């Protein structure tokens, strides 16, 4: 079936989407994006994703032509137009076409694209067994270099870590910051479990503040599970009781070894399994419906 994309204000067939070679998103990675999921026709935490998008835009002096309300409607319309119930939605706002210089003032019209498709980040078997991970040799840039809180189109840091993952024979990498603190995965946040308490790096460590991360923190606290935002080193990761990663694409997945050291007993731990089940149940029942008034099941 022909895929329809939202492209600068209208839903158009994929083949009709034309992006200028002078678009600064293409030339310089000058732009931002969001990855969003829909579960059973309901778009999960759309408000939060749009909040993060517009915050990233503000940091980059990027004026998004759509209002938040228009953008929310565009996301829902794209899911609907592709008849999707479970979807992975990619929303990209790039600086738009300009000249060959860097100056964004030469780019009067940002390019806005929404794609609704499907994604499976890791094979199902890895959700059962958990992931072996390794620490990446390149560090996350600190907030005064390229603020990781801005979800910019520049993902080279994560791309290089993915290349290294393949070389080291693991599906995912963990990145450290300049101080040697554990920060996050290539596209996901990280938690460890220590004495039945969840520990996750604070924003100031240089993380992207994940929507899944904040939902997991909320769900855990709602059940009386303590959560602290605290820096930890790779030594503490090796010696944690459990570890898991969270992200829109990855959802919740256990990490069961790091740099060859088993984490806990080397299997997804009880708290990780519980939170994954709790999250999946919550996600299926929350969100903004793309099919209002209709049964989406
Ligand atoms: N960190 C990075 C670097 C990411 O790209 C993502 C995915 N957006 C996350 C964390 C997780 O964020 P979220 O839960 O909002 O998808």
Automatic annotation (TrEMBL):
One of its GO terms (cellular component) is cytosol. It is an enzyme of class 2 (transferase). It catalyses: L-leucine + 2-oxoglutarate = 4-methyl-2-oxopentanoate + L-glutamate; L-isoleucine + 2-oxoglutarate = (S)-3-methyl-2-oxopentanoate + L-glutamate; L-valine + 2-oxoglutarate = 3-methyl-2-oxobutanoate + L-glutamate. GO terms for biological process: isoleucine biosynthetic process; L-leucine biosynthetic process; L-valine biosynthetic process. CDD domains: D-AAT_like (cd01558). This is Branched-chain-amino-acid aminotransferase. It comes from the Bacteria. PROSITE patterns: AA_TRANSFER_CLASS_4. The gene is ilvE. It comes from Sulfobacillus harzensis. One of its GO terms (molecular function) is branched-chain-amino-acid transaminase activity. It holds the Pfam family Aminotran_4. The lineage of its organism: Bacteria, Bacillati, Bacillota, Clostridia, Eubacteriales. Acts on leucine, isoleucine and valine. The keyword DNA damage does not apply. Pathway: Amino-acid biosynthesis; L-leucine biosynthesis; L-leucine from 3-methyl-2-oxobutanoate: step 4/4; Amino-acid biosynthesis; L-valine biosynthesis; L-valine from pyruvate: step 4/4; Amino-acid biosynthesis; L-isoleucine biosynthesis; L-isoleucine from 2-oxobutanoate: step 4/4. PANTHER family: AMINO-ACID AMINOTRANSFERASE (PTHR42743), AMINODEOXYCHORISMATE LYASE (PTHR42743:SF11). Keywords: Amino-acid biosynthesis, Aminotransferase, Branched-chain amino acid biosynthesis, Pyridoxal phosphate, Transferase. InterPro entries: Aminotrans_IV (IPR001544), Aminotrans_IV_CS (IPR018300), Aminotransferase-like (IPR036038), B_amino_transI (IPR005785), BCAT-like_C (IPR043132), BCAT-like_N (IPR043131), Class-IV_PLP-Dep_Aminotrnsfr (IPR050571).
């Amino acid at each position: 079936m022909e895929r329809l994309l939202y492209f600068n204000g209208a839903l158009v067939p994929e083949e009709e989407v034309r992006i200028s070679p002078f678009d600064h998103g293409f030339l310089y990675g000058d732009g931002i994006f969001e990855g969003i999921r829909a579960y059973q026709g309901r778009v999960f935490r759309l408000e939060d994703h749009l909040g993060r998008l517009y915050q990233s835009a503000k940091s980059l002096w990027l004026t998004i032509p759509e209002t938040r309300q228009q953008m929310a409607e565009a996301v829902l319309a794209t899911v609907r137009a592709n008849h999707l119930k479970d979807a992975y939605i990619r929303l990209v706002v790039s600086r738009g076409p300009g000249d060959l210089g860097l100056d964004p003032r030469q780019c009067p019209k940002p390019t806005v694209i929404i794609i609704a498709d499907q994604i499976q980040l890791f094979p199902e078997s890895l959700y059962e067994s958990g992931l072996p991970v390794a620490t990446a040799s390149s560090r996350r840039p600190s907030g005064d270099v390229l603020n990781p809180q801005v979800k910019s189109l520049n993902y080279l840091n994560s791309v290089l870590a993915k290349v290294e993952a393949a070389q080291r024979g693991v599906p995912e990498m963990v990145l450290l910051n300049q101080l040697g603190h554990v920060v996050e995965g290539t596209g996901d946040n990280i938690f460890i479990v220590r004495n039945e308490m969840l520990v996750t790096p604070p924003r100031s460590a240089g993380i992207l503040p994940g929507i899944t991360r904040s939902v997991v923190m909320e769900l855990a606290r709602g059940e009386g599970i303590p959560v602290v935002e605290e820096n930890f080193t790779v030594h503490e990761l090796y010696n944690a009781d459990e570890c898991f990663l969270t992200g829109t694409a990855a959802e919740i997945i256990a990490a069961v070894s790091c740099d060859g050291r088993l984490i806990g007993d080397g299997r997804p731990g009880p708290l990780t399994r519980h939170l994954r089940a709790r999250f999946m149940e919550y996600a299926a029942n929350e969100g903004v419906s793309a099919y209002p008034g209709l049964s989406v099941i």
